[in-house]
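User: I'm new to structure prediction. If I give you an amino acid sequence, what do you actually give back? Let's try with this one:
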Amino acid sequence: MKFKIVAFVFITALLTVCATAENGAEREQSGIIVYYKHDFEKGPEGFQGTKGTSLDTAPGVSGKALKAVIRKRWGGPALGINIQGSRGLKLAFIAKGLGMGRATLNVWDAKARDNTTPYGYRVLPDGEWRPVFYHLDRFRYNSKGSGFVKNDTDYRNVRFWAREIKGKEAILLLDNFVIYRGDDPSPPKRVEGLKAKAAPEGIALEWNEPHDNAFPMLYVVERADQGGAYEKIAETVETRFLDRTAGKGTLRYRVLACDFENNLGPWSDPVEVTGMAPRATRQLSREEKDRIIYAEHIRRIHGHGTGKVNKGLVTLYGDSLTYATVYRHEVAAHLGIYRVEARGFPGMTTGWGRRHVMEKALAKDNPEFLLVLFGTNNVLGRKHSRDEMEKWADDLEAIVKAGEARGTVVILGTIPPRGFSDPESRPEREYNQVVIERARKLKVPVAYIFDEIQAGGDRRQYIWRDGVHWTPKGMEAAARAWERTMRQVEFALRFRE
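Assistant: Good question. You get back a string of structure tokens that encode the predicted 3D arrangement of the chain. For your 497 residues, that looks like this:
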């Protein structure tokens, strides 16, 4: 069962904001102010189609979703709103696109008479449900290329749009759409109605969506085999899951819900089922294999940072590659639910990063996650001795330990290939191997940026003519590598005994 609130009004001296809603006012008791909350069980719920867009409902992550068929460029679904003040305002939803590419939207500020725009439109791979989380106070005005919106905004419209239409139409599905203000301290309620059914292809699970002050973002699924201990096997945004790796025998399952700010709810009551299909094996990715090594370690570090670090903040720390403006936005677009800062310092080496990590990144941002990319200015495209590279790895180790002492989870990135004369980019490859080995020794995650670019074909797509800095496509490749590793980090951290 879904719980629905069309709009809320609440006036608070602390935030000095107000919002007017057509259908009455209600004060949330769980730490946030909810203005609009739609699950689309009764149709479009105030959304209108613009510029050749037709609206309907379709199967969603739980029950129904809004389906927008967009036939003209810049068309899409729009919702009229009435919310004053940008501070602490957040917009979250689950989306699936076909031909969209990104969760492209604007929010109209009637006071400034200008649309506001996120710096990094969140990525929507075709046919895949994705959680999307935007901080509206970190948007910019369309008429400006920098800065953030003012505090005294007068928001009147949220409009999704398609950048281009390939073929006859683009499709956007939206579910669990919510606009709220404040940091959410409250996890979703207990998952109820968990059912398990054996089938030739595996075990089919389904459950009811639990109540949450905003909405659940995803679900954690655990399985216990033959009376053994529970092990996490999946995350899913839908209220259903097919376990194809279950095997035969007596199996127990339990599920919990996680909201958009990574608050974990309680476990459901377990269900028991007898599997009838032979156990299927799945090839693990390199990132999944790495997770087995570091999961327990980063959970301990993350637990140490609870209540101390700036939750939901990712800081990129490195040299001129990190300094590139678009890089930060591209990483944010791929990570999907985090605020992202970039602290990039052109020309700097691992040694500089070691000496200045506290003042330039950790104390400045106090991030939940620190994504480190140093080494390009050490290697310089030349061969180096193993001893020299190990000293650079010592610098990275010092950065890792400085972050972990504060409760920040640190992830190391491999540096991109350099130049065009050496297809293997051997000096960079050798340095990266040292970084990988040190990361495994320290039990910290690695993002394989070098391999992502090498696998992409002609390096000139990703590296500028200077042979060092990356093109926008190179930054996108790096963001994909960070994303794949962060997905495994999240998988490890969304854990409850």
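You can read the tokens as a compact description of the fold. Here is one thing that stands out. The first strand starts at residue 33 and ends at 38.
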